[in-house]
Amino acid sequence: MTLCVTGLTVRLHARTVLEEIDLEIAAGQVVGLLGPNGSGKSTLLRSLAGLVARHAQQVTLNDLPLAALPLKIRARHIAFVPQHAEVEGDLSVEQIVRLGRTPWRRPFQGRNVGDERAVEEAIALMQLAPLRNRLWRQLSGGERQRSQIARALAQQPQILILDEPTNHLDIEYQLELMRLISELPITVVVALHDLNLAANFCTRLVLLKSGRVVASGSPAAVLTPQRIQQTWGVCACVDRQETALNIRYAMRASALPRLRRNVG
Ligand SMILES: Nc1ncnc2c1ncn2[C@@H]1O[C@H](COP(=O)(O)OP(=O)(O)OP(=O)(O)O)[C@@H](O)[C@H]1O
């Protein structure tokens, strides 16, 4: 399935947040969306998921505007995990993951074998079995993140859209999640701040700055020291080790005001 956005300009409260975005995401790509704070990543991901209603006409799935697809059908194709997902009510991890099956359920139909398999698979992939009966409000930030990703996996989408999914995850889970994402036989679009994770697990990177796409291509083509400097104002060395990229940042004097310490 090809997800496409053409000439997308989004204005929120009289501010232009995205400007003239053209993007074609082919089936099977793992696209990393990068950019400084406020550059428009979340807004673009929400648009791709069809959640910016005014612009759902400009996003197409295999040439069909998302606006033309009933919500249930859209949800069978696209799953979205926002940056700060919330859960209403006192749901357990297992109940949250089961929500992912909603688009596949028929009215008055109980759970079927396919539902059970999808839920169990998602719980296992996110290593949530020991937490399955734990309530949402009793979960840590990382456990909540993994529960929401499991919910999206249980949805069995063709396209998975994740907004900073590594937030709250420790290093082991960050690496595990990125490995899993890169091995899924579906399309993934993922916003990330960690350039090393993006460079080493995504097949393509799209770089946003001030609401515009300023670069798109392979990690090695996008993440050059010059572009990192231009985009984030940070000096970086980019080492290539066979197929891997290793990005190291040079420390510089802080732009933040210094705290005075009065000792003694
Ligand atoms: N509802 C809104 N009304 C007005 N401006 C908004 C609204 N939502 C977001 N913005 C602004 O749009 C810009 C892009 O926001 P967005 O959340 O898409 O950026 P981002 O790249 O995901 O940022 P971050 O890396 O900090 O999560 C920001 O300047 C933000 O302040």
UniProtKB/TrEMBL annotation:
| UniProt KW Nucleotide-binding keyword | yes
Name the Pfam families for this protein: ABC_tran
Record SMART domains: AAA
Q: Which InterPro entries match?
A: AAA+_ATPase (IPR003593), ABC_transporter-like_ATP-bd (IPR003439), P-loop_NTPase (IPR027417)
Q: Does the keyword Hydrolase apply?
A: no
Source species, domain of life: Bacteria
**Cited SUPFAM superfamilies:** P-loop containing nucleoside triphosphate hydrolases (SSF52540)
Q: Name one GO molecular function term.
A: ATP binding
Q: Where is the ABC transporter domain?
A: 3-235
Keywords of this entry: ATP-binding, Nucleotide-binding
Q: What is this protein called?
A: ABC transporter ATP-binding protein
Q: What is the lineage of its organism?
A: Bacteria, Pseudomonadati, Pseudomonadota, Gammaproteobacteria, Enterobacterales
